[in-house]
Amino acid sequence: MPFTREDVEAVASLARLALTPEEKELFARQLADILRYADEVLAIDTSGVPPTAQALAVPPPLREDERRPSLSRAEALAAAPDPALETGFYRVPRVIG
Amino acid sequence: MTQPRSARQIRDEVAAGRLSAVDACEAALERIARIDPALGAFQTVTRDRALDRARLLDRDRSALAALPLAGVPIALKDNLCARGVATTAGSRVLDGYKPPYDATVVARLERAGAVVVGKTRCDEFAMGSSTENSAYGPVKNPWALDRIPGGSSGGSAAAVAAGMVPVALGSDTGGSIRQPAALCGVTGLKPTWGRVSRYGLIAFASSLDQIGPIARTVEDAALVLHAIAGPDPCDATAAEVPVADYAAALDGDNALQRTSIAIPRRLLDDGVDEGVRQAFDRAVEALASRGAKIVDVELPHSRHAIAVYYLIATAEASSNLARYDGVRYGVRAPLDAADTLATMYERTRQAGFGPEVKRRILLGTYVLSAGYYDAYYLKAQQVRTLIRQDFERALASADVVALPTSPTPAFRFGERTADPLKMYLADVFTVSAPLAGLPAISVPCGFADRLPVGLQFVGRPFDEATVFRVAHAYERGTDWWKAVPPDPGVSG
After folding, report:
1. Which residues of chain B does A46 touch, with a Cβ-Cβ cutoff of 8 Å?
2. For chain A, how many structural domains are there in total?
């Protein structure tokens, strides 16, 4: 399946990823190669085969949903590039005019 | 380099009072300072944190004597969170990030008496087979400084191979523990998916990721797994399955008398380096001559494992890496006053991610997108089922499946970076075990052109005990694990 520069742009937009013109050319070519290789999978007869989302056969343990100690707001904000420590929020560019 | 002390030897000496935790720690720090500049295995050395920890351990000698990893220096792959310690996962986007909490494996290692001496370099977000995708520089293979150490846990494998630490943790999604262990001539275990808590592991592909040990001996790997395994309230996928005392259950050659080992011969027909093939065949002969029953097995769908793996792992990665948006942690790209939120996301991710991560995000986003989900992602999940069923059948009659770990020995820097697909094929024998969720170990089994070769055993779900027993029996009948590379910078 061909993978064009426009395909790269569409997918990059979905992934919120800006790319240079050189990256678009390179990735279009490389992703086309990878998808051509992956096409072998498309021909396998999988009718009636259930998908595997994860391989664990053991049911996950459950616990009560109860309050427990956790990070303080200041600790959780400490790694943010632009924390608003006084109000306890993450600051980002204005979203609504 | 002389034969470095194993974790077991260090622990025994510390427990007997012949060695202090501080002395063991200082010896590791001294060796790192002396030889790591030539290798680049460490991203961060946690000197002060380590010495504080060792002093604390030495203060209560009687309590220390009872700890299973008393005073053992250990390194962590740099995608494992340690409170207050820079954790980059090899990415610029996490430059300067210091997690506010410990990964469960870190807390458990410290509770067992281990001393974390540093964080090791890895491919960015564990995406790679050579550690060339680290944003912070390459790691050299201690056996040949012009060659890659494997990846993505290349720093951990090189650190153990060069005798800087007896054990290190890595993470394995498609072979990232076993392949670098093989290429550096050491032992590496990927546990069953669900055996070890992933809390505090920076996620790549959540249905495949698993943390495990890299060590010089099977016994040391067993000691470390015992310390880190088991259920965890912080990770619902860490299964409530009993954890055995793996090291105590090792019984050398005896294990082979009642063991059947399946070989998928047809899978090995193409693309295996001649030196690797010879080392593998000799290893199988050695196992047979010492009592193991060797049987042939078909794993017909494993030849599609690379394609299936790169469809599933990239899909999961595209979702997991959505969190790097310049809001909660890491680096935000510089912005102008008029820039929008969307621009902030796009520029932050453009500047923060390297080429391989971008490639995988694009591929993963594509296979999950409308119109392609069924054709690629769902199809890959169905073939994943077929791969898993092949192994179920094989392991119904055999105790383990044996394979080479890597089709080639360590390659040269730059040899595969221009062709991502060629790089992906380095994982051809390692991706099946994580797709099937199975435990797998790589142990040294010889050399090809003076470069280490690894032998892999894949076992039944949650049966790490058998995997360890077979690997230990093989190891005890060979001297490959005793080989040590020359110190870098020292001739000969």
Report:
1. 379, 382-383, 385-386
2. 1
